[in-house]
């Protein structure tokens, strides 16, 4: 039978893995800005990265609930390091000279039009320094703010009102995150106007706002599953540790 320490370790490992993969995925695909109107019939534009970002919201809140602020910050900074590593590896591959046969095999698209696959590869994967700085800055600021606000609500509500501390912390932190990433990446280092930054950031935020509210039942379901996995006594002990950690 698994011990309490083993269950705790396994739980943190699984939650951290889900958090890390989705955060890395959001950073990689976030370079694409797509038309919501053309894709879903709604007016506005979104960064593709926000599509998986709600999973990061839930992961942050659950880790915060059971492992406290230190647990959130530990996986946050580990994720930042791994994202930087991933971008360095990707950047390195863009410096490699393409093989002639690869270029020749991919010189036309399925419709027979001229196609430069090396240019496409470079355009997709060789993101500018500004995008990397902007996304990581927003990620760290958003996570620290989320963890801190979550703790504040936890001290006020105790173990009650999970939806309040989870949704409230997400809405506040993502208000900052949504604007910081676009401002740094596309205004300071890019060629966007402030009007474009505000328009896309505003729509990004409202999407995250809606996702945080809609996914509240998922948060409760995750809590239920974790409580059953840990057991009543062990769950209470673990949550008490998290609460003490948040109060520091």
From TrEMBL:
Keywords per UniProt: Cell membrane, Membrane, Transmembrane, Transmembrane helix, Transport
Family per record: Belongs to the vitamin uptake transporter (VUT/ECF) (TC 2.A.88) family. Q precursor transporter subfamily.
Organism this protein belongs to: Hymenobacter ginsengisoli
Superkingdom, taxonomy of origin: Bacteria
Membrane topology: Multi-pass membrane protein
Compartment(s) where it occurs, according to its Swiss-Prot or TrEMBL record: Cell membrane
Pfam families: Vut_1
Transmembrane segments: 12-34, 40-60, 72-93, 129-150, 162-186, 206-226
Keyword Protein transport: no
The protein, known as: Probable queuosine precursor transporter
Described function: Involved in the import of queuosine (Q) precursors, required for Q precursor salvage.
Record-linked InterPro entries: YhhQ
């Amino acid at each position: 039978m698994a011990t309490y320490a083993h269950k705790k370790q396994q739980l943190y490992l699984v939650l951290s893995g889900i958090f890390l993969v989705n955060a890395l995925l959001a950073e990689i695909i976030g370079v694409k800005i797509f038309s919501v109107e053309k894709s879903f019939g709604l007016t506005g534009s979104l960064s593709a990265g926000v599509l998986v970002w709600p999973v990061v919201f839930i992961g942050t809140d659950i880790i915060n609930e059971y492992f406290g602020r230190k647990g959130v910050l530990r996986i946050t900074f580990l994720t930042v390091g791994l994202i930087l590593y991933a971008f360095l590896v990707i950047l390195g591959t863009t410096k490699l000279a393409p093989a002639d046969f690869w270029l020749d095999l991919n010189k036309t698209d399925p419709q027979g039009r001229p196609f430069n696959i090396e240019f496409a590869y470079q355009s997709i994967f060789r993101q500018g320094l500004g995008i990397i700085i902007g996304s990581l800055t927003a990620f760290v600021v958003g996570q620290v703010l989320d963890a801190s606000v979550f703790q504040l609500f936890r001290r006020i509500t105790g173990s009650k009102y999970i939806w309040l501390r989870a949704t409230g912390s997400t809405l506040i932190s993502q208000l900052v995150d949504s604007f910081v990433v676009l401002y740094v990446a596309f205004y300071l280092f890019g060629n966007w106007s402030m009007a474009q930054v505000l328009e896309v950031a505003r729509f990004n935020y409202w999407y995250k706002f809606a996702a945080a509210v809609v996914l509240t039942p998922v948060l409760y379901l995750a809590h239920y599953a974790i409580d059953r996995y840990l057991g009543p006594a062990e769950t209470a002990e673990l949550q008490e540790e998290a609460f003490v950690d948040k109060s520091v």
